[in-house]
Each structure stands twice: as structure tokens, then as C-alpha cells.
Amino acid sequence: MFETMGLQIQYLLLLQNFREVTHGIFDGFFMCATWLGETIIPLSIICIVYWGINKKAGTFLLFNFGLTLYVNVFLKMTACIKRPWLIDSRITPLKEALPAADGYSFPSGHTAGATAVWGSSAYFWWNKKFIRYLMITVVCLVAFSRNYVGVHTPQDVIVSIFIGICLMFGIDRLLKWIEAQKGRDFIFYLVLLVLTVLLCIYIHIKCCLQMQTYDSANDLVNPIEMKHGVYAKIAFMFGIFSGWLLEKNFVNFEIKKDATIAKWVSIILGILVLYILTFYMNKFLIMLVPKHIASAIIAFLTALYITFLYPIVLKKYKF
Question: Where are the chain's structural domains?
């Protein structure tokens, strides 16, 4: 274990030395690459696919994104592995990458999100070579960029990709099982509800135990703050599947095959509303409720908006 970590640190130091020797000429490029794994970008891609290109493909991406969140949260809170610069003080990550690297290191959330969306797109459209290779390239760029900027070890990104691939195959079969018989969507949702409650209980107990050994001077992650952030991710995941179930049974919108201007304007407007909901509603809610509760509410509403609320608009106005 320690020998493996030592090799990973040497690899990160090699990349760090490359950054220094090249005077950071590639820093901007790899920061853009890592940005492709930020939540808002994959969500925008999901919206475009789910609302305007292929609803089945969009559902596949949503399932992968939602269940990846669940697995990622569980592993992060179980392993509690520190960031590379806390493991070895010689590691100096790019300052621009630090705001999005405030939690535990393993596994990589950016890589997981990229694999769930870009990788799932490659899986779904595997027979279209251009899409397949383009999407795989994006996943590899995001994964490598997390090492390049110094915020994740190779272990973090490799495991995220491996989990993502396993989920793709599993979710492909899960969706076929759900569609094979009426009522299975409710069975899946109830199982997910139970698992979500168990995950919340597990995280609460885990964070309470961690607070007993928490050192504010040396530990990057405050267990209570981490718990609050994790609850927002769980709320988002639960919102995805709640909206999916509601849309499937009460809306069932269809995508028009013709690429009209009105159709794409409606998608762009829908994404703009998503940005407003994501970035600005939180400022209003924190005046009414504590910040972590506001974040969880916004996360749930954002997911519900993507999967249920905006599809109602699309169906009503026949975009």
C-alpha cells in the first residue's frame, strides 16, 4: 500500500516538475479539461440529450450520473483518504484547482462525473466511431487533468473510471429489467429510497465518529461540513430518480425528431433556467434556512427540474 502510494506521489511530482519546467504553458488547457468534469457541464450535456436528442439515451445518462453520485459519496466517506498535498508536502497543486478540491481525495468526483456522462455517451453510441472516440478522449483528459493539477492520485481517477464502466453495464441491464414489466420502476424506486436512508444514517454516524479525532489545524476536511455537502449530493441523486419516476408515469414527453429553431431555443432557455436555479436560488434560500439545508433543497429541485418539471413545459408547448 505505502509502496504504491510512493510511486503515485513520484508520478505527481514528475507532472509538477513538468509544469514548472514548461512555466505552466499547459495549465490553462488542463484546467479547461478538468472543468469538463464539473457538475454543471455534465448536467448541461444531460439536458441537451434528455430534452432534445434521445430520451432513452438521456435516461441512461441520468441513471449513470445519479448512481455514480451514490457510489462516490459512499466510497469517499468510507475511505476518507486525504488529498495528495496532505499526504506529501512536496506536492503543490494549482491554486485554480483548489476551490473544487475541498473534500476527500478517493475516488475522484470529477472523473466519476465525466465517466458517468461522457463515458456513458460513448457506451450508448458505441457504434458511432466519432462519438465513441471523442467521448473516451474527454474522459481520459478529465482524469489526467486531475493528476496534472495535483489534486488527485492516479488511484483516485483509475478507480473512478473502473466504477463508472461497471455501472454502465449494470445500468444497461437494470433499465432493460425495469422496462420489461410494469411496476418495476416503483420497485426500483423503493429499493433506492431504502438505500438512500441507510446511506444518510451511515454518513451521520461516520461523521460523528470522525469529529472525535478531528484536528482543525491539520485536517482539510471538517466532518460536519463534509456531511452537509454530501447531503446535497444525496438530495440531487434522489431528485433525479424522483423526477424520473414522476415523468415516466404522469408526463411521458416525447422528443420531436425535426430540429426546429423553437426546439433548440427551448433547450437553451431550459439550461439558462437551470443555471439560475443552481447559482442564484441558494442566495435566496440561505436567508430562510441554514446553508446546508438550502443546498440540499436546491440540489433536489435542480434534479427534479431536469427530469420532471421542464419536461412538463416541453410537452405542454410541444417543443
Answer: 2-316
